[in-house]
Write a structure and sequence with these properties.
The protein has no helices and ten strands. With about 130 residues, it is mostly beta strands. β6 and β7 form a beta hairpin. The chain starts with a strand and ends with a strand.
């Protein structure tokens, strides 16, 4: 069974010890006018894979507006190696920068994540007029 957690943050990185460092987790952004441009947000997450899964796993991330229409998309893949029961299950650490994202109106935006045909509800962010 796949286990996953995703968040929006201002920055993230892999440490030399293989641990994921996450900075500035948020679920709200403010803008004086709309459409509003956010220069950079980062979608970060960890997926723990079933032990018997291996190979190249495709994924798609859509950031959807309040009506469910994608305003920003990322496509990619991750490589997963099978792991024996004497080790922790394989994991992928996702650090996905989203540059120059245009938010057309205030409201609730949600990331929808498709990993190899499995839909995951990602984090949400509320755009608020300041």
């Amino acid at each position: 069974m796949m286990e996953a957690v995703f968040l929006f943050c201002t920055d993230a990185g892999d440490g030399p010890d293989g641990k994921l460092s996450i900075h500035g987790i948020f679920n709200e952004l403010r803008a004086p006018d709309f459409p509003a441009r956010q220069d950079r947000i980062v979608l970060v997450g960890i997926v723990e894979w079933p032990r018997d899964l291996e190979g190249r796993i495709p994924f798609t991330v859509n950031l959807n507006d309040p009506e469910g229409m994608a305003i920003f998309s990322i496509e990619g893949h991750t490589d997963v190696a099978a792991r024996p029961s004497t080790q922790a299950p394989a994991k992928t650490q996702f650090i996905l920068p989203m540059e120059k994202v245009m938010f057309p109106a205030p409201g609730h935006y949600r990331a929808q994540i498709d990993i190899d045909g499995t839909d995951l509800a990602g984090p949400s962010v509320h755009l608020v007029r300041s």
